[in-house]
Amino acid sequence: MNLRTFLLGTCSAVALAGLAQAETLTIATVNNGDMIRMQKLTDDFTSKNPDIQLEWVTLEENVLRQRVTTDIATKGGQYDIMTIGTYEVPIWAKQGWLLPLDNLGADYDVDDLLPAIRSGLTIDGKLYAAPFYGESSMVMYRKDLFEKAGLTMPDAPTWDFIAEAARKITDKDNEIYGICLRGKAGWGENMAFLTATANAFGARWFDEKWTPQFDQPEWKNALDFYVKLMNDAGPPGASSNGFNENLSLFQTGKCGMWIDATVAASFVTNPKESTVADKVGFALAPDTGLGKRGNWLWAWNLAVPAGTQKADAAQKFIAWATGKDYLKLVAEKEGWANVPPGTRTSLYENPEYQKAAPFAKMTLDSINAADPKNPAVKPVPYVGVQFVAIPEFQGLGTAVGQQFSAALAGQMSVDQALASAQQLTTREMTKAGYIK
Amino acid sequence: MARNVSTRRKLVVTVVAWTVGILIFFPILWTFLTSFKTEAQAIASPPSLLFFDWTTENYHEVQSRSDYFKHFMNSVVVSFGSTLLGLVIAIPSAWAMAFAPTKRTKDVLMWMLSTKMMPPVGVLVPMYLMFRNTGLLDTRTGLVIVLTLINLPIIIWMLYTYFKEIPGEILEAARMDGASLSKEIIYVLTPMAIPGIASTLLLNIILAWNEAFWTLNLSAAKAAPLTAFIASYSSPEGLFYAKLSAASTMAIAPILILGWFSQKQLVRGLTFGAVK
User: Is residue A384 a contact partner of residue A375, using CB atoms and an 8 Å limit?
Assistant: First the structure.
């Protein structure tokens, strides 16, 4: 063997070793603004960690949910980091599908995470997912329409006031509707809103023995109220409206009020998209004086599936993406208004952020007002404000949502909708073994 | 003798054909137009058909966000690969069924078609486990195999129908002249069946190109074809119609162009056997 061959051989061996060392993390995520922004900013991470490369799989929420559930349930190991919702975290952690995040680094400051968000992601004292952004729901309203009608929106309105104001503002001849609410069937669509609202009316999905509660007067009050209000003051065809439909109605000036995710605030106040950008006010989600507000709690979180071989690198990335420095990085590059909201106390104490985001205080108050461990007025056996964190809920929620959507569309009465909701929930819960 | 067709009848038929054609094409046209709108215009109601500020911003955005070429190449490899592999298997089997039928041939044909009757999600988990154990998850080879299996019944059926129209005597003559079985298939049957094979090929490339269940579920980052590219632009929160339309237009453009050029073969492929 001559020297040249030897040198060549050594060089390629070194090159191969170098290749083997560079780890590639595959990250599954949803398609929304904050996540897309993160993908654009990852140069900051890879320059600090040259031995880690990132590969993104971006999918629509429902496709992503099916995709990652298949992978994690079969331990397929296709992803090293998954973006999952507050609903999945407790279920998957209990199944042993997620690795606890115990290696996020010394300066991660776990105590800075908002307590309401953090508690939903902690099981038996261990954090199983790190929040990337959090949201609650609140009232968005048109200040100009309120002024015209001689109304003043309190910071913490009641449902009675909301209903009265909605009816007063409605001017169907000019296509202005007092209130826009979700009506499209789905556990993450109308049932997110209605479950949270029912909490404010004193209703709950199940009692302590997992008996469905749709036959109780609280549910009837809540659903009756919702259907009547939407018939009087809602837009036509409301039973097929979800987040995006209502967003477009509100942005084109057709809604007096809209109660939905806090993340909508940045859309409706964006003058590029919204015709009413400078006329929007915010208030807490309404209550009925029973001590609970109809606001939900949701976060998109990063978690590490148990099947991965690259847990250390994955945690390094999560610490970067959900850490304090990331918020600063976004602020530097894209401005404070675009920082992912709802995860860290320090963000809300930052005067620059308060100045850039007029909805900051309302978002924080809404998140703090939600309590996923005690969501209803009466005690419940489950975790979750606008959902019930059991695997059966996706199917159940959607089936019940279809009944309620039909009631809104006038295809059945409120009593019929509740009766069939009670019947199908009892059947499914008995089959699943919750009701003995 | 040709039937006498009145002008009025011709007119009616023309109008009806155009109306149906435009109705069917309208969603694609709408997607195309939406891809040049801003997000706010895309959801505006009432929508404007042509009078809006045309912008190519969505295409820039899609270009900068995802690697179109990678997805495109994956789609090409997967759809062409699975169709060619399918043809290699299907030509001999269609030959057997067309020219050497037994009393069970009809049942076998029916049985093959029956595999298309089950909703694919029913076998998702077993398939996923098999792919995991063989290391085929997120590989182009894996997608080629699964799409071959899925489209094989259709390929065999199409070729079978076509082969049935070829007189068996010609093959017999070849055999008399001493052609072996493989030579008979390769040199005699295949050249005669080229139009049928071409239309089968085209139709199956289109089917494989558009297949969205298995390609989405069995791929992740490396092998993801254009279906995954489209799926990354839909969102339940926020405005996305314009960008989604741009991504969809980019994804269907190659196959649309291919279809355009091969219209003749396609129409023939879809209607053969219809006059029997």
Answer: yes
